[in-house]
């Protein structure tokens, strides 16, 4: 008995035994841009498919049990990135969080509230134990640019040191956590375009009293510089733009921007041609990965601005699948799913915003939320870094956007993916763009992740394929017999 450690030291060892395995298991390799410029990888060279979820209000709107339930659910469903605000959109500075904390003392950005930011660290660490990366928005756009929203505006062109100091503090809080990604922006423009004053979001900025050429980029530059200083290294960095726009035009030359982000959004009706926006960014030099950071949310009212017509209905799972598959096969490095009730955590504590038709707990299990894993598995089932978009695979040209097909293939032609958005849809596919020889044909079901064998064809010249008569949507998978790939589910 005399050889036993004193009680205090025994307690320390007990805690270390509990914590050390957790720390080791939580260590995720950082995400970076692959050398080819169009894809992402982990620091140890493994492919990384960005499958995100917009949990914008996660930190502010959930208690510990709710947050854990959300993170576990999305991890189980195969998501890789959670996009979350530090300073939440809906009055997230002045109104206390679900745990009763506000981010700043006296709403002063120079006086961070340690308890609020300690909770942020807990969320990031819990996500890591589940294999999730967290794309942190240091401040939703209305805290910086504020053409509209609750604000308050905290960071201005005349207080740039405050933005940098806040970034430095935030970076230091999560220092050493390799599952952190920085996402600036937050549904607001980085600069207004004086040549298009009547177009959104320029019109909103001007209506709010800003000059037609107002430029907020200096604020974001200072904030990201502070983030990198506090974090101690450069983490993957991107920017979340307003609906209907992307970052390549206004931020593409910023040295801190690693990815080009788009938001096809919810206000353009069905079948917004995201494939054109992705193709534009994919063709830019120098090459950068690109992706849609906010396609139409599942169960979001269709085009609700300036006033929603209920006859337009809601975006449902088919709408979500169409935009996600089209953007990825057009060349994106991944995609972000979103649900209208989840981003705001609508429920018993948080009032519904913009006609949400259910609460967030129910929404976690909606069809498209569970089906996104099948997109990830399909892309990861074939050579990852050599996947390229190839619109020339599709010979048939559809004038109806709802029937638009998008195609991707391996650089060496060992496989091809062609997304058919409707059932019983016929299209000519140029098999000559794939490796010569016999091709194995399968129809991949994006609802179930299973594939139907459709035989063997000779890989030369155009051939007509017709999607199955139910569905409604399908992915035509063509594999060189020499490659011997098997689609998921077979």
UniProtKB/TrEMBL annotation:
InterPro entries xrefs: Apiosidase-like_cat_dom (IPR025277), Collagen-bd_put (IPR024749), GH (IPR017853)
Putative collagen-binding domain: residues covered: 388-479
Ranges for domain Apiosidase-like catalytic: 36-385
PANTHER family attached to this UniProt entry: ENDOGLUCANASE, LMO1036 PROTEIN
Name listed for the protein in its UniProt record: Endoglucanase
Organism of provenance: Lacunisphaera limnophila
